[in-house]
C-alpha cells in the first residue's frame, strides 16, 4: 500500500495553519503563519503553506482542503465576503489548485471544517457529533458518520440566526432577537464590556461567581442562550457528542460548567430533557490542536475518493 497524503489549511482572520495528514488520518507536520488580507495573498499563502508542510511528500499529496470563514460553496470552491481578510469574492479552490500544479483543492466553511476535525480527534466512534462554534458569531457544524452534513443549500447548522426573542436586539441579518445576538463572542462583549482587550467571558464568569448582581444578570441571559443552542442541536440531530468550540471555548472548563449547569437546571424542570442526559454529552474542543486544518484535510479526502 502506498502512502497517500492530504494537506489541510485553516485560514483565520489572524493566522493560517496547515497540516500534512497521512493515510491513517494522523497529523505528520503542522505549520502556521500570520494571515495577510486580500484574495491574491490568501491564494499565494495557501499554496506556499501547502508546499511547506508537504515538503518531499508533495508529489504524493492527493488533495488539499481549505477551511475559511465567509460564504463558502464547497461544490464550486467559490468564497465570498470574508470581511476579516478583505475578500469580496474569489475562486479559491481553482486558483490554489492552479498554483499547486493541478492538485485537487476542496474548500469548506471554517466552522464545518473545525467540526469534522474535532469529531475526528475527540471520538471517531460517535455516529453524530455537533460542534457549536461560539466565535465572534454562532454556528453549528454537524458530522454524521464522519461526514459533514451540509443540507440542501449548505445552511445546515446555521442556528445563530434563529430568532429566540423578538423583543430583544436587532440582528445585522435583518431579523430581530437572533440567538447570535445573545450567544456569541461579539454579543458577550456588547453585554459585558470590559474596556480592555481581554475576552469578556472569563471576567463575566468570575464576577458573577463573586456575587456581582450585574454580572449575574448578564450571565443568566448568556447561559440561557447557550442552553438554547445546545437544545437546538440535541433535539435536531441527537448527537452523542456536543463539542463546544470557537474563541469563547478558550475560557475552558468554567464555560463548559456554566453550560452544563444551564442544561441540568432545565432537566430538573423537564423529565424529557432530564432523560436526554445532555450535560454528559458536552466536550470542550481540544485546545491547541489544529482541528480546523485537520477537518479541512478530511473533507478534501471525502470528495476526492
Ligand atoms: Zn440574525
TrEMBL record:
GO molecular function, one term: glucokinase activity
The keyword Iron is assigned to this record: no
Signal sequence segment: none
SUPFAM superfamilies the UniProt entry points to: Actin-like ATPase domain
Keyword line: Kinase, Transferase
Class of the enzyme per the UniProt entry, highest EC level: transferase
Domain of life: Bacteria
Keyword Kinase: yes
Enzyme nomenclature, EC number: 2.7.1.2
Coiled-coil positions: none
Similarity-based family: Belongs to the ROK (NagC/XylR) family.
Designated name of the protein: Sugar kinase, ROK family
